[in-house]
Amino acid sequence: MLKFLLLVILIAIAVYMTLRVIQRRGVMPRHDEPPRPFGPDDDPDFLRDLDRKRRHPKDPEA
């Protein structure tokens, strides 16, 4: 039982260290950076422009 527990701990440490190395190299996204919009429906500027066009359909600059 002790050998199994040590094996699980060693595997967990190896996985953790591997993920830390990958994260430091920039392959994985970091959680401290704000997320970028994935599509136009996630972009606040795009949604604001759509709302403006809906409110004022004849005036393109309103």
Task: Describe the protein.
There is one protein chain. With 62 residues, the chain is mostly helical. The chain has one domain (2-55). Helices cover 58% and strands 0% of the residues. The chain is built from 2 helices and no strands. It has helices at residues 2-25, 44-55. The chain is rod-shaped, with a radius of gyration of 24 Å. It starts with a helix and ends in a 7-residue tail after the last helix.
Approximately how much helix is present in the residues?
55-70%
Low-confidence stretches: none
Q: How many strands, what sense, and barrel or not for the largest sheet? A: none
Radius of gyration: 24 Å
- Helix/sheet category: mainly alpha
Summarize this structure briefly.
The protein has about 60 residues and is mainly α.
